[in-house]
Amino acid sequence: MAKLVMVVDDSTSVREVVGIALRGAGYQVVEGRDGKDALSKLNGQKVHLIISDVNMPNMDGISFVKAVKEMQAYRFTPVIMLTTESADEKKRQGQLAGAKAWVVKPFKPEVLLAAVQKLILP
Q: Signal peptide: which range, if any (predicted)?
């Protein structure tokens, strides 16, 4: 069974590009428009990895990751932040929230897929 990756970004085009790369590599994809939308889709199903933007309306990526890490079913789900943010302070906040990797946009799909393969849960 294909592993499920959640992609959270307020940009439809980014969700599409990431989704195409992931599906092309054999993953299933579920999308969230922002942190709040994505949280509503975390309903107990096994999610092997989350890729999240940082700057989003309703609930930003750092708040989203903190909320995910408080959920029993998703405490250990690895998170990759995919963002235009490259400031060390933002990266530190992401790390403290529980993010395992930080990929800066614009990104190369092969770089993102390498990070996914390294971090995805068995």
A: none
